[in-house]
Specification:
Layout lengths: L5 E5 L2 H17 L4 H19 L8 H4 L10 E6 L8 E5 L6 E6 L8 H18 L6 E6 L4 H6 L3 E2 L6 H10 L2 E6 L14 H8 L5
Antiparallel strand pairs: 1-2, 2-3, 3-4, 5-7, 6-7
Helix pairs in contact: 1-2
Length: 209
């Protein structure tokens, strides 16, 4: 479908139930989907419960700056009128409310452009945040090895900088690949008190942050 036909927004509890239903169907029909959807379901549930319980202590970009996404939810769905009311894909964002932590497309609807539309919308959101200094000027993700070609196709490349020791160990265990895309050609200089500056300095060094 054209990207214009895909809408990305927070999922309601009912829509989340629809997403769980097709995850379970995918597990029954596709042997290679079992492990991924088990992990994804756990991530979605934790993020969704956090949204319903704002006393969890997590701070998202939508509450730490003037920048706001269409919802403070960390659980987003991709919807297309042609496929019905159920989400065709999902994304779970990290606690910053910007960076994707897990993403998936319904197995029978893959390679139709839904994942691309969802990923590009996440990048657009991050670009708007970066323009307001409400997010870093690059979008760094942890990609599963099998998804690297997908991310390369939409402009991502191996990330520069260095992982923290803890991240480096986890990356070796999980096999994730750090990939990044620049969001702005001429990003505004940070004032130094932005929430994302400390992590960026750790990765790229003081000169870059």
């Amino acid at each position: 479908p054209p990207a214009s036909d895909v809408r990305v927004r927070a999922m309601t509890p009912a829509e989340l139930g629809m997403a769980y239903a097709w995850m379970r169907r995918d597990q029954r029909r596709y042997a290679n989907a079992v492990k991924f959807w088990d992990s994804a379901a756990s991530s979605i549930q934790a993020a969704f419960e956090e949204t319903l319980n704002p006393e969890s202590g997590e701070t998202s970009v939508s509450s730490s700056s003037s920048f706001e996404t269409s919802s403070s939810s960390r659980v987003l769905g991709a919807f297309c009128a042609a496929t019905g009311p159920a989400p065709v894909a999902f994304a779970v964002l990290k606690s910053d409310g910007l960076v994707v932590d897990a993403m998936g497309v319904r197995q029978g609807l893959r390679r139709l452009g839904f994942g691309r539309a969802l990923a590009l919308e996440l990048v657009r959101r991050a670009r708007r945040a970066a323009a307001e200094r409400a997010g870093p000027p690059e979008y760094v993700i942890d990609a599963l090895p099998g998804s690297v070609p997908f991310w390369r196709a939409i402009g991502f490349a191996p990330a520069g900088g260095a992982d923290s020791p803890t991240t480096a160990v986890m990356r070796r265990l999980c096999g994730d690949v750090a990939m990044a895309v620049d969001l702005l050609e001429d990003p505004p200089a940070p004032s130094g008190d932005e929430w994302w500056v400390p992590a960026r300095r750790k990765r790229f060094g003081d000169a870059e942050a």
